[in-house]
Amino acid sequence: MMIIARYALAAISICLAAGFFAASSQLPVMGIGDPVGPSAFPMLISGALAVCGLLLALEARHKTKREMGEKVPASKTRADLGDLPLVLGASLWTGLYFLAFEQIGYISATFIFLFGGIVAFRRSRLVVSLIVAAGCSLGFYCVFVILLGAQLPIGNLFE
To answer: Which residues, given as ranges, of the chain have pLDDT below 70?
Structure first.
């Protein structure tokens, strides 16, 4: 069962990349603006997703070969629901991030999202978590606004 799930995740990733690439190639090119066009960044993302899908397939192949050579306990062949609360919590946290995005702005929402995520996985380092969350939030903001020319929401709190 786990072998099928590994290959399914890789296949789904590659299919999503192909669909995203096809959709981004359909974006209209305007006469004004960036000479590369609006589809360059989505195509880059779809290429990265395809590479990740291929790496997942290679990892699945490697793990499958290794497991075939050794006895696999029955507990490893069934789906393990022990990580379900973690996955649901991360999904809820991400959903709250997207809901807060417009209300409190990109920098604030991203800082809270990153800080909460880092603290959830590494509770002992609060000062380092604050520094990393603040640095990443500001760094990503500069990349999107200054380098890519994107407009990110500043939030209703700061208007």
So the answer is: 1-3, 27-39, 69-84, 87, 157-159
pTM above 0.70, yes or no: no
Tell me the one-letter amino acid at 117.
G
Is the Cβ–Cβ distance between 37 and 27 less than 8 Å? Answer: yes
Task: Give me the residue spans of the domains in the chain.
Answer: 2-77, 84-158
Q: Name the residue type at position 61.
A: R
* CA 101 vs CA 25, 41, 115: distances in Å: 28, 21, 15
Lookup: tokens for 65: 């070969």
107-141 pLDDT per residue, tens: 898 999 899 888 888 777 888 889 999 999 999 88
- The total of other beta-carbon atoms located within 10 Å of residue 50's CB is 18
d(CA 143, CA 152): 11
The whole-angstrom separation of Cα 42 and Cα 81 is: 34
Which residue, chain included where needed, has tokens 């209703």? 156
- Residue 32 region by backbone torsions, left for phi larger than 0, else alpha for psi between -120 and 50, else beta: beta
Number of neighbouring beta carbons within 10 Å of residue 147: 8
